[in-house]
């Protein structure tokens, strides 16, 4: 080691820190309206400090001074309690130097708060630690791997700065808490049973590699519960405990007697139903036992009595579906097949012939090319699509819209998979074979091929196989239906939703926003109508028979309006704590969200079934802006207590309605205590 080099480095850091202190002091002494003029100097000084060894610690020590000087003034970073861990990684990789510097400073402020060095007025040390644990868990590669060539080319020296930052953060809060938070996050996602689990599988794979690396010290008690996740993919049963590879695994299966195969089959099934994940070895086992007897097939799928009945009744179809769709690369569809059988939908007369048609379907060149481009050549495009069909029919509430503004189309696919599966299968045929879908709006046909562009500007690529083919067509048709309502007064969803989703969508319609002005209207009447239509105490104790489309005003964790969003109301029922809740489907990939003002969407622990989100009835109503009603069912709106309505109005006026109050309205109601 060269001590002169250390001394030189220390001198350089000291000089840059002194420059930073001067810049921060100048900003602190400037009045608020002039602070932006001092920002450039502070950001440049911060960047120069962070690029030095020991720079992160120096910035951490100045976290409070930077905050109070006004570094974050006028940005979301000014309110650290509302920041989202999922946005930190994209911010650091944005390529925008200022964004990277502010994001890095914000994380170091979090660390200072977590360690008790800075007592923040709106953020507790516990919350700061939890935030950082999630950030580190979501960006594990920044802890354990060097920058890639692409990162070095795109980010330059910043790529190494980011890694030094993350190592400093991990040293500060400890690796054990990172893995604990990671495991907690993985289980939270898996409880929602998404169709697409590639990201979760990638996380589990990466952490498994890190745990096996002798140069990576994760702590003796890190990641409690992670073993269940790792073994669900790589060491599920005795025959694949050490991840031996497919050839050795198959040879072991061939050497087993019936008892051994049953033990393997039931082991895979338990892990699958426990986690919602399917090991590639499970797919190979299912293909193998298909020739050994239906009892073993049922064991491998973990079927209920209903599922076993469907398997035995439609044996040839199930075996052909396994032959066509189940491969190690498409192993996740095994779970879809199991749930499809347990749902009993093969007993619906159109479904079995529709699935036989799916098996004999000839894909058009556009569909084949698109599936191959996204998922690769093996297995072939037809197998990928059939696997996707099984997953969607088994997990209707696992459909996600990806990073695309196509929530209406994703909602429709989910509805059809759950409520009208043969119609979904027809849609798949049209899209895959003909590259065209035709629907009708008020008796007039609308062709996806002849319609103009949809809501999405580009073709989505981050979707499951069925959505990948069908959503672009639905998106164009949905947009065309909206265009045909453009000259009608009011919100076009009044007419579009029933025509787009199905006959079961109620024709009555309620909205609490004036389309022309954006102001709130008829809020009291709107809320009473919602109670009278959906709340058992005011609708004659009538359960919701068919899922209903609805629209919510999504807000962030500070209760600020983000945008309109399509969801599906599934049911209304008391939870285990006897709180009346609305259970709904949210197609945005992760339903567990904090909508601010105490409105936190639950996905587990309050009576939710897999894939459902829920909120207490009043809190859900406070974010609702459109819903459909049966015009012949009136309920008892007059019996809804005024205090219940007032409480919900308070939630509205403190959140997305704050800027939508008509002139002369009272100030927003105070937060409840």
Describe how the helices and strands are arranged.
Blueprint: H1 3-28, H2 36-50, H3 55-61, H4 63-69, H5 88-92, H6 97-114, H7 125-138, H8 141-144, H9 149-155, H10 158-173, H11 175-190, H12 198-211, H13 226-233, H14 246-254, H15 258-275, H16 280-289, H17 294-301, H18 305-313, H19 315-325, H20 333-343, H21 351-359, H22 365-375, H23 381-394, H24 407-419, H25 421-434, E1 438-441, E2 444-447, H26 465-484, H27 493-501, E3 508-511, H28 523-534, E4 548-555, E5 561-574, E6 580-585, E7 613-616, H29 617-623, E8 624-629, H30 642-653
Antiparallel strand pairs: 1-2, 3-8, 4-5, 4-8, 5-6, 6-7
Helix pairs in contact: 1-2, 1-4, 2-3, 2-6, 3-6, 6-7, 6-10, 7-10, 7-11, 12-13, 13-15, 14-16, 15-16, 15-17, 16-17, 18-20, 19-21, 20-23, 21-25, 22-23, 24-25, 24-26, 25-26, 28-30, 29-30
What would you note in describing this structure?
The protein has 4 domains: 162 residues, no CATH class; 51 residues, no CATH class; 136 residues, no CATH class; 146 residues, no CATH class. The protein is built from 30 helices and 8 strands. Strand 5 and strand 6 form a beta hairpin. Helix 16 runs antiparallel to helix 17, helix 18 crosses helix 20 and helix 24 packs across helix 25.
The tally of beta strands, per DSSP, is 8
Strand content: 5-15%
Number of helices: 30
Task: Count structural domains.
Answer: 4
Q: Over the alpha carbons, how many angstroms does the gyration radius reach?
A: 28 Å
* Oligomeric state of the chains in view: single chain
> What is the spatial order of strands in the main beta sheet?
3-8-4-5-6-7
């Amino acid at each position: 080691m060269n001590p002169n080099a250390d001394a030189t480095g220390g001198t350089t850091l000291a000089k840059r820190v002194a420059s930073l202190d001067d810049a921060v002091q100048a900003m602190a002494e400037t009045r608020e309206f002039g602070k932006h003029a001092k920002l450039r100097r502070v950001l440049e000084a911060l960047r120069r400090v962070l690029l030095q060894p020991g720079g992160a610690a120096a910035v951490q020590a100045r976290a409070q001074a930077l905050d109070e000087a006004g570094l974050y003034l006028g940005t979301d970073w000014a309110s650290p309690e509302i920041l989202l861990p999922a946005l930190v990684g994209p911010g650091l990789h944005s390529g925008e130097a200022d964004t990277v510097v502010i994001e890095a400073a914000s994380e170091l402020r979090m660390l200072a708060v977590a360690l008790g060095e800075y007592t923040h007025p709106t953020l507790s040390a516990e919350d700061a630690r939890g935030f950082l644990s999630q950030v580190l868990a979501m960006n594990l590669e920044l802890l354990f791997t060097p920058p890639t060539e692409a990162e070095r080319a795109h980010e330059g020296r910043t790529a190494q700065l980011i890694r030094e930052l993350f190592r400093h953060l991990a040293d500060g809060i400890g690796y054990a808490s990172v893995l604990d938070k990671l495991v907690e996050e993985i289980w939270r996602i898996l409880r929602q049973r998404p169709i697409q689990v590639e990201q979760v599988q990638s996380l589990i794979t990466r952490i498994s590699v890190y745990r096996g690396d002798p140069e990576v010290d994760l702590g003796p008690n890190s990641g409690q519960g992670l073993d269940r996740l790792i073994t669900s993919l790589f060491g599920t049963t005795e025959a694949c405990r050490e991840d031996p590879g497919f050839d050795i695994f198959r040879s072991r299966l061939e050497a087993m007697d019936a008892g051994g195969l049953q033990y393997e089959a039931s082991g895979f099934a338990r892990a699958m139903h426990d986690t919602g994940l399917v090991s590639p070895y499970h797919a190979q086992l299912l293909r193998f036992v298909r020739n050994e007897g239906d009892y073993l097939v049922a064991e491998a799928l973990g079927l209920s009595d209903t599922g076993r009945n469907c398997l035995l009744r439609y044996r040839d179809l199930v075996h052909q579906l396994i032959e066509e769709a189940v491969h190690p690369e498409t192993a996740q569809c095994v779970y879809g097949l199991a749930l499809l059988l347990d749902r009993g939908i093969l007993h619906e007369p159109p479904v079995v012939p529709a699935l036989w048609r799916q098996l004999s379907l000839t894909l058009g060149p556009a569909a084949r090319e698109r599936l191959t481009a996204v998922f690769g050549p093996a297995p072939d495009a037809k197998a990928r699509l059939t696997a996707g069909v099984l997953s969607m029919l088994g997990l209707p509430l696992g459909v996600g819209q990806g990073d695309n503004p196509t929530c209406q189309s994703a909602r429709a696919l989910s509805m059809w998979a759950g409520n009208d599966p043969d119609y979904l299968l027809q849609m798949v045929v049209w899209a895959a074979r003909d590259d065209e879908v035709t629907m009708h709006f008020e008796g007039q046909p609308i062709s996806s091929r002849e319609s103009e562009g949809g809501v999405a500007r580009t073709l989505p690529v981050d979707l499951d196989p069925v959505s990948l083919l069908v959503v672009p067509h639905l998106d164009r048709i949905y947009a065309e239906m909206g265009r045909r309502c453009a000259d009608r007064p009011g919100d076009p969803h009044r007419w579009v939703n029933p025509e787009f989703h199905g006959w079961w969508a109620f024709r009555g319609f309620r909205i609490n926003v004036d389309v022309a002005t954006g102001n709130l209207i008829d809020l009291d009447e709107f809320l009473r109508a919602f109670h009278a239509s959906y709340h058992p105490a005011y609708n004659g104790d009538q359960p919701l028979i068919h899922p209903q489309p609805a629209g919510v005003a999504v807000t962030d964790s500070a209760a600020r309006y983000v945008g309109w969003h399509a969801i599906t109301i599934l049911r209304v029922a008391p939870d285990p704590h006897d709180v009346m809740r609305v259970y709904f489907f949210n197609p945005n990939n992760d339903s567990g969200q904090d909508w601010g003002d105490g409105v936190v969407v639950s996905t587990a622990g309050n009576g939710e079934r897999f894939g459902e989100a829920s909120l207490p009835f009043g809190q859900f109503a406070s974010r609702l802006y459109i819903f459909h009603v049966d015009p012949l069912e009136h309920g008892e709106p007059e019996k809804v207590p005024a205090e219940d309505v007032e409480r919900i109005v308070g939630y509205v006026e403190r959140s997305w309605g704050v800027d939508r109050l008509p002139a002369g309205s009272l100030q927003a109601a105070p937060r409840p205590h």
